[in-house]
Amino acid sequence: MELFKNQKDLKMDVLKEVGNIGAGNAATALSQLLNKPIDMAVPKVQLLGFEEIAEKVGGAEEVVFAVFLRVEGDAPGNLFFILSPDAARSLLSRIAGISEVSDEELNEMELSALNEIGNILAGSYLSSLADFTSLSMYPTVPALAMDMAGAILSYGLLQFGQMGDDALLIDTTFLEGQNEIEGQFFLIPDPESFPKIFNSLGVPFE
Amino acid sequence: MIEEQSVIKVGMADLNVGSYDKVIRTTGLGSCVGLTLYDPGKKLGGMAHVMLPSSEIAREGKLNIAKFADTAIPELLSRLLNLGAIRNRIVAKMAGGSQMFAFAGGNDTMRIGPRNVESCKRALENLNIPLLAEDTGGSYGRTIEIACSTGLLYIRSVQKGIKEL
User: Fold this and answer.
1) Which of A60, A141, A151 sits opposite B100 (nearest CB)?
2) Across the interface, which of A141, A152, A158 has its CB nearest the CB of B112?
3) Are B106 and B125 in contact (CB under 8 A)?
4) What is the interface pTM, i.e. ipTM, of the complex?
5) Between 3.90.600.10, 3.60.40.10, 3.30.1330.200, 3.30.450.200, what CATH number should domain B4-164 receive?
6) What is the per-residue pLDDT for B105?
7) How far A116 CA lies from chain B's nearest CA (Å)?
8) Closest Cα to residue A198, out of A146, A120, A133?
9) What angle do CA A49, A52, A58 make, to 5 degrees?
10) Between chains, do B30 and A1 touch, taking CB under 8 Å as contact?
11) How far is A142 from chain B (nearest CA, A)?
12) Of the candidates A84, A94, A90, the residue with the CA atom closest to the CA atom of residue A33
């Protein structure tokens, strides 16, 4: 599928900057919560087949924690904050002061704390994006799931599914220290949102 | 589960068929539905990983017929018939169609799992194919595989382990 006819490189760079600003603010929020520096990998913007998107987090069957928000407003889309089970437990123990996080299933309070952390980070991602683009973007109430990555991420592909077999993903990874992955943000704007995002940033869409 | 060499993988919005010792598998079904058709006499099986309920909403240039319930199931049936399956022996099973995220207000897109299930059932009725068993709904992901030697459908989920239909 061809999403952009002209100036493809420029448009991809603009979307990288979108990911950079959103995740940059979320990284700051996370580093304040953790009281330690959080680094961020350079955002990746890729048009990927549905299968490849789950590969980004270790495959369709990989078990992950994900906070999912549907973005509504001028430029609707889907936003995921994804954590490995280990990263989720480590976040809980450090932020929520839950010292004994069991290896078993998380209890209700732990899940709720995780959902709230995801909500804070996703909120800062979105609000900085809305400021940057002057578009209104507001999140739905976040929902948390722990399950197979393929099953979770498929919810972000429904809008693209109506027009093709791949989706444009803005992927930003949080790092702590050398290369320990702390979490990943996936933003998948609806196909209709791209003209609005580009117009708001002064990039002609066609 | 089964050794990799005899496994036929079906991706998202994809379908495939196999026979005898083959196992057909699809991974990470959430709102999507994994639908299988099987001819027990010839030991021929097929699986579709359906993503959306109806091709009417498609706005793509070249339609991927494996993606939509109303187009994938007739295609899967004709692929099986091409392999020599006998029409009136074919039976169906399905799994998936869960609702992973429950949002307050619950707009239509988020009900996509149940809608996929309904649409698959309608397509089976139209084709007059009996649905022998299903494991649908809930709020969890599933990986499924059908053994073409037996027609048994194995369903694996993170919290509930392995189930057999």
Assistant:
1) A151
2) A158
3) no
4) 0.86
5) 3.30.1330.200
6) 47
7) 15
8) A133
9) 165
10) no
11) 8
12) A94
- Residue B96 pLDDT greater than 70, yes or no: yes
pLDDT score, position B42: 92
Contact A50/B27, CB-based, under 8 Å? Answer: no
* B64 close contact with A: CB closer than 8 A: yes
Task: Give the confidence band of B104 by pLDDT, cuts at 50, 70, 90.
Answer: very low
Q: Which CATH architecture has domain A8-198?
A: 3-Layer(aba) Sandwich (3.40)
Residue spans per domain, chain B: 4-164
Q: By the CB < 8 Å criterion, does B71 face chain A?
A: no
Rg from Cα positions in chain A: 17
* Contact status, residue A188 vs residue A169, Cβ threshold 8 Å: yes
The verdict on a CB contact (< 8 Å) between A154 and B102 is: no
- Given a cut of 70, is residue B23 above it in pLDDT? yes
CA A4 to chain B, closest CA, distance in angstroms equals 15
Closest residue by Cα to residue A87 from A61, A63, A71: A63
- Tell if the CB–CB gap between B158 and A141 is shorter than 8 Å: no
Q: Which residues contact A109 (CB under 8 A, 6 or more apart)?
A: A98
Cβ-based contacts of A143 with chain B (< 8 Å): 100-103
Enumerate the domain spans of chain A.
8-198
Instruction: Among A39-43, A79-83, A100-104, name the one with the lowest average pLDDT.
Output: A100-104
Token pair in block for residue A55: 């590969």
- The three-class DSSP label of residue B1 is coil
pLDDT, position B24: 95
Can B32 be counted among the known catalytic residues?
A: yes
Q: With CB atoms and an 8 Å threshold, state whether B28 touches A149.
A: yes
| Mean of per-residue pLDDT scores for chain A | 85
Question: What is the separation, in whole angstroms, between the first and last Cα of chain B?
Answer: 15
